[in-house]
Amino acid sequence: MKNIKKIVVKVGTSTITHPTGLLDLNRMESIVRQLVNIHNQDIQIVLVSSGAIGAGMGKLGLKKRPKTIPEKQSIAAVGQGILLHMYEKLFSEYGKTIAQILLTKDDIDHQTRFFNARNTCLTLIDKHVIPIVNENDAVAVDEIKVGDNDTLSALVAKLIGADLLIILSDIDGLYDCNPKEYDEACLIHYVDRITPQLEAMAGNPGSILGTGGMVTKINAAKIATSAGASMIIANGSIYNVINSILEGEEIGTLFDADCKILK
Ligand code: GLU
Questions:
Q1: CA of 3 to the centre of ligand 1 (A)
Q2: Which CATH superfamily, name and number, covers 6-261?
Q3: Pocket of ligand 1 (CB under 6 A)
Q4: Which residue, of 4, 55, 149, 258, has the fewest CB within 10 Å?
Q5: The whole model's pTM is what?
Q6: Cα(89)–Cα(84) distance, rounded to whole angstroms?
């Protein structure tokens, strides 16, 4: 981890919200503090944060995810403001400036828009601003959706030419079988090839995938490593997790930047 200069950190909804949907301030505070500490060491950072829909549901007192698209989108619009307000408060307490970037698939797929988004991100980073990215859920419908923030974070890693993508989740990493079902399940610490076997393991409904969303994480690993970035999946509830990863501690599952993708 010595030569890491530019990182993308992705935090999932379950990492920064309580089951009520309201924000987990202790967790957010801890993540922000770690990011600031890393930024202070001259490492460039982009944060990809989920939680807009969760926070919107919490604020509006909704217990169930609504079904219709306009309802989901309006909830995301409420929640995105809440999310950014809290990040603004926390980062500014540590003297940092943040910026909000909301992307859709079109911004990644079309060359001109890709370069526009890239230039904006890189300009902000150069100005020591920390961009906070989410999907533009309020307007993104299926046809123009990336769909999940694991994939989005890998696309952002590619967009800015990051060295490392850290995905913080509510699971410890990739297991060889579902740890909730099998006591003997082993955490895989290091992946240097993504094989059809590994993908099938992740995609098996009886495996960790069903609960932890490992399919989207393996997809993210393919995008990130193809773009030359290493990727780590780790549990966001581990104390000081981001700093420990950058200090070289063996935490979670590391996908090597030179990872081979076998078909
Ligand atoms: N963009 C969604 C949100 O902010 C999250 C999508 C995801 O977690 O993959 O609620």
A1: 30
A2: Acetylglutamate kinase-like (3.40.1160.10)
A3: 12-13, 50-54, 134-135, 137, 148-149
A4: 258
A5: 0.94
A6: 8
